Fold:
Amino acid sequence: MKHKIAVVGIGHPDRGDDALGFLTLEKLKPHLPEGIATFSLLGDMVSILDIFEKFNTVILIDAILAKEGKPGDIFRFSENASFDSITIPTTSTHTFDLAQTIALANNLKVLPSQLIIYGMQGEQFQPGAPLSFAIQQNHSLFIQKILDEIKTMT
Amino acid sequence: MKKKQNDKIKKLAVKAGLKTQTIKVDYLARVEGEGALYIEIKNNQVKDVKLKIFEPPRFFEALLRGRSFFEAPDITSRICGICPIAYQMSALYAIEDALNLNVSEPIHALRRLLYCGEWIESHSLHVYMLHVPDFLGFDDAISMSARYPEIIKEGLFIKKCGNAIIRLLGGREIHPINIKVGGFYKIPEKAKLLSLKEELLLAREKAYRAIEWLGKLDYPDVTINYDTIALSHPNEYPMARGQLTSNFGLTISAKEYSQHFTEFQVPYSNALHSKLMQRDNYLVGPLARYNLNRNKLSKLTLEAAAAINFEISCHNPFRSIIVRSLEILYALDEAIRILENFQGIEPPCIEPNVKASMGYGITEAPRGILYHRYKIDEAGILLEAQIIPPTSQNQYTIEKDLKNLVSENLHLDKNSLTKRCEQMIRNYDPCISCSAHFLKVHFL
Structure:
């Protein structure tokens, strides 16, 4: 039997704006309603497929590079077609990035009933870099938007 | 006969417009890390082949200097997210060699189980996600998954089983943290190890079936008589122990490695090339392991090979995908055997006596032999480190194979020839991030 809601923070805490997913999840955790599962994913995106198979609703949080967007812009995607307009930063050609993993999940028919991606336009992804100023400025608003949506689901 | 064939190829090449051509692949896909391919053809002759590894150098050998020997396994594991255990193992065995530390058989066995986990996850990633699309006519695993979802699902299931072993024994899937010089930090309970068994049995069935359908695919008809190098051990298919052996009579210890092999730099690559001092290029990896150690594979693995009439010695790099799949089956079979026989380990670790010394370690990473050498001072500080990964050892061979491949396929159109070259590179499952770790320092 599938569980209800999972929130997944994606990204590495020590790679500049790539830390967005990880840091946002950490800030969300104390405020999440009971019964919501949380996961942090640092590297292998393919393990998301397991989460997709176990939950009805999955909310992914990640830094993104939208074709039209400036650092700190907030995006919400919930239709598969809208995923085409984004590029999730990828660090390796050996493993799949998020967009590829979603495409794979779609072909394997393991997408959850509801998949939502919250992203902010990133700017710097170097190892050891801090969050960019633009992301820091909008981070509280970003967290609040996600929390508001989760509260409407429970 | 050969001359006639060559003339025919040259005529076809002219027809295909390949008399003078440059093939450039700026970013190699479905390999780990950042590399490019450059081939220059002039007057129907291959003039130049360069496998350009432009992934930046990563300075690990310098980073290790001044650190405690205890840190070497965890620092070197950061060289690669796909095969961190290989780095940990070669570092452990090299340092334990330096300190004359002989760990117990149960610790060797548990480390072997961990290594099985890495072989399973690394090989299944390559076979199912990166390599098999070449043979089924797809650009990548995602497009392939629409037509063959079951193959991809089975591959992902097998990979997950490898990851589960690493997570349980290593503490986490990527860059595990539970092994140390002298043993382990913590030994899992037998019940926890046995909890993996059901899924490993299922994965083993899937891996067996995969060999059946892989055996039916069409492979380019290529024969290359490589000089092959792999570990060999009297009692086991090689992973972390044994002598370095070859198909031309060389049998040496890890300590003698530098007397027979040399590294050299080429201006277009951030990875050093390797060659045999008295011969030339050589091959490491699954084909070399299989050809030198086939009789050490498990009964089930040999049965699977026999069921598809797989050759006793394989000289076709395009068929390395089958050898990798045999090794997946073997690693699953071996993992089940080890966890069934596990009786617990007490204590989990033996303490080393520190002394000034030099140590050498070679283990079999999924892609082939991985050499580590460390010089330690009397306080246990690393004075020198040398790491030679399998991809940089194979790089020179890959270039030679590409040159021959292009020469024999000049009749193909540029697009087909480019694809064939990329496929040839993927036969070696190169890990470019690993190969670009080196640093040459000139002291004034």
Remarks:
- The first strand of chain A starts at residue 3 and ends at 10.
